[in-house]
Amino acid sequence: MVVNVTGFQDAFDALMGELDYSMLIVTAASGPQRAGCLVGFATQCSIEPRRFLVCLSDKNRTLRVATRAGALVVHLPTTAMAGLVELFGGETGDDIDKFARCAWHPGPRGLPILDGCPRWFAGDVIARRLLGDHTAFVLAPFAAENGARGEGFPFQRAKRVSPGHEP
Fold this sequence. Notes:
single chain; Pnp Oxidase, Chain A; seven-stranded antiparallel beta sheet; two-stranded antiparallel sheet; 4 helices
């Protein structure tokens, strides 16, 4: 066994860069403010009770809105939804209103649901934890739609989207 205690960062970064998990779009609302962003760090974290963990970058506006929100929506885009992925991953809500550039409607509790992404769930925020440069939100789902199926939007393809804010 080889243990490299110096210079491991490059090897770790390369390993993480090879993973290929599905990307998600998270939307939030607090009062009149809406926000949304592309998310790569997320996972189901409990079967019973149902819980989901989603991490938002400290660099984007969505985190600022989500910290004041009682619930979030997690959308599961497919490879056919490249335009939505580009909008929510390649633009920043600090500069534009992303929701003016896509079809959406108020869903449960007035949360923004993206019309172009018919697979989503909404969850109450039951915990928040700072984890480095991301904040983790633990969600307890209370509503969901499982519409048109398709292959999840892969991380490797999303790496081609230039982030709307500094990484």
